[in-house]
Design a protein that fits this description.
alpha/beta; single chain; binds 5'-O-[(R)-(carboxyoxy)(hydroxy)phosphoryl]adenosine; 332 residues; 42% helix; five-stranded mixed sheet; binds zinc ion
Length: 332
């Protein structure tokens, strides 16, 4: 067997490995989440994350290879997230990838985590239309881009303060709902009513986003109303977020009329966002490209897909690359 990429992702609190073939089919995807490790602290503790990656990485890589019935001899390259993310966490994945690449005599490809999320559209369908509009909503990012082709992006707008996942996590922490906040707020929102009139920041302002004022509005409301109904707070917060995200998607579809719109990143696991985004796509007769719920949050399959695209276009990376915690997308 040949034409396989082994991919490794350790940018935050998931230790993940996957095997992806040259037709971009995922042969295996293993994700070990550290949620239980960080939950008592209400957020990711960087030093604990690095140590845990170190303990898990060998087993997770071995599991991914076994599940794909592959060995080092079958690999064309090893792809690994080079940034953005936590420096110590990234370092573990990169060191593992380089060591394996050296041992097996294959090139190593450094992959931008954001390109990984954008490439996760291939986990939705293989014949991805270009150009397409893409909303990337995660714990670290919130941006609207247009992808002309793999590796070629235009930025339409991004958050001027918090990412949306960060806002979810901070609101959840304030409400004592634990970490990560997205899934629990989402579930609660389904049972509450959007009746608190929270602001929809920057709704009328082009393509940029802002979530810090909304988060403060929630905190102020809760402080002033000790008898608050938590499900209604969740429903009102989530509705405000969704209105903003969907307004920006709608604006882009109106302006560019793309045949498809992608919604990617951890918050794309939200059933509420999935429904709302589908409704906007339907309004315009566009296809919604959204990874399966389990592959919206961090995983290595998306890094394998982006890795193949980069490897095919540019070959292996200079093996001297290191972690780039603040790596950004390059826009054309
Ligand atoms: O993409 P991701 O796994 O990591 C980053 O690259 O940041 O995104 C993690 C974020 C967290 O903020 C988490 O609260 C959010 O995704 N998230 C969700 C859901 N599942 C995860 N947000 C809303 N609804 C969900 N079901
Ligand atoms: Zn991510």
């Amino acid at each position: 067997m040949s034409g396989l990429i082994l991919a490794i992702e350790t940018s935050c609190d998931e230790t993940a490995a996957a095997v992806v073939d040259d037709a971009l089919a995922v042969r295996s995807s293993v994700v070990a989440s550290q949620i239980d490790l960080h939950a008592p602290f209400g957020g990711v503790v960087p030093e604990l994350a690095s140590r845990s990656h170190l303990e898990l990485i060998t087993t997770i890589v071995a599991e991914a290879l076994t599940e794909a019935d592959a060995s080092g001899a079958d690999l064309s390259a090893i792809a690994v997230t080079s940034g953005p993310g936590l420096v110590g966490a990234l370092l573990v994945g990169i060191a593992a990838a380089k060591a394996l690449a050296l041992g097996w005599g294959v090139p190593v490809v450094g992959v931008n985590h954001l390109e990984g999320h954008l490439a996760s559209v291939y986990l939705a369908r293989r014949d991805v239309p270009f150009p397409h509009t893409a909303l990337l909503v995660s714990g670290g990012h919130c941006m609207l881009t247009r992808t002309a082709r793999p590796g070629s992006y235009t930025l339409l707008g991004e958050t001027v303060d918090d990412s949306i996942g960060e806002a979810y996590d901070k609101v959840a922490r304030y409400l004592g709902l634990g970490y990560p906040g997205g899934p629990v707020l989402d579930r609660l929102a389904e049972t509450g009513v959007d009746n608190l009139g929270f602001p929809r920041p920057m709704l009328q302002d082009g393509y940029d986003f802002s979530f810090s004022g909304l988060k403060t509005a929630v905190v102020n409301y809760v402080r002033q109303h000790p008898d608050f109904v938590v499900a209604d707070v969740a429903a009102s917060f989530v509705a405000a977020c969704m209105d903003v995200l969907c307004t920006k998607i709608r604006r882009a579809l109106e302006e560019f009329g793309d045949e498809a719109v992608a919604v990617v990143g951890g918050v794309a696991a939200s059933p509420i966002l999935r429904r709302r985004a589908q409704a906007v796509a339907d309004e315009f007769g566009s296809a919604l490209l959204i990874p399966p719920q389990s592959l919206a949050t961090d995983n290595a399959a998306m890094i394998g897909i982006a890795g193949w695209q980069k490897f095919t276009a540019l070959g292996g990376s200079d093996p001297r690359f290191g972690p780039e915690p603040d790596l950004r997308l390059v826009y054309s």
